[in-house]
Write a structure and sequence with these properties.
Layout: E1 2-3, E2 10-12, H1 29-55, E3 86-92, E4 94-99, E5 107-113, E6 116-120, H2 123-131, E7 136-142, E8 149-158, E9 164-168
Parallel strand pairs: 6-8
Antiparallel strand pairs: 1-2, 3-7, 4-5, 5-6, 7-8, 8-9
Length: 179
């Protein structure tokens, strides 16, 4: 929670959590709590100060993290919005990581099954994608428009017959950003 010093008015609030499907599940409790705190503080500051980057008028700047953009992107006219087409592909996964050519700190997680390529920037989904390399998987992908690869929505992988595990791409809750 961010409060104004002069009168204590609440300027921004946020909460966070660490999911059981994330890399944090096997870490010590203090590490989980520290990550939750880091995420909440980050969201509080972003909620309050995101407008500063917009005021700077930096060309090609996107202030919305890719993980918070709805499937199909933002639409000004919802009536003309096309439904997102999803499809599934099954086979042996070949996965790898690749630094972004413009921002080396951004790491793409990529995969391929039966010639169908996919990508994700999400840490939890990317971790599942990379750890399932060489495994028989079923990928749910978002159909790409004009791209050679599709966005990864869901991955199901099998450790042995009858034991399926999935990492879901859950839609993020919209932020109430007071400006």
């Amino acid at each position: 929670m961010l409060k104004r010093d002069s009168d204590g008015a609440v300027l921004s609030e946020a909460w966070a959590f660490v999911g059981e499907d994330e890399i944090w599940k096997d870490r010590a409790r203090y590490a989980n709590e520290a990550m939750v705190q880091t995420r909440a503080v980050s969201r509080v500051c972003r909620n309050k100060f995101a407008f500063v980057a917009v005021l700077m008028k930096i060309p090609n700047l996107s202030t919305t993290p890719a993980e918070e953009v709805p499937r199909g992107g933002f639409k000004d006219d919802l009536k003309s919005a096309k439904p997102v087409e999803e499809f599934k592909v099954q086979g042996v996964l070949k996965s790898y990581t690749q630094p972004d050519k413009d921002d080396p700190k951004k790491i793409w997680k990529r995969g391929e099954v039966n010639g169908k390529r996919c990508w994700t920037l999400r840490e939890d989904l990317g971790h599942s994608l990379i750890s399932a390399n060489g495994e028989e998987v079923i990928l749910t992908l978002e159909k790409a428009q004009g791209n050679k690869s599709s966005r990864l929505i869901n991955i199901e992988y099998f450790n042995h017959p009858g034991d399926a595990q999935a990492a879901q791409d859950l839609e993020p809750e919209p932020d109430d950003i007071p400006l």
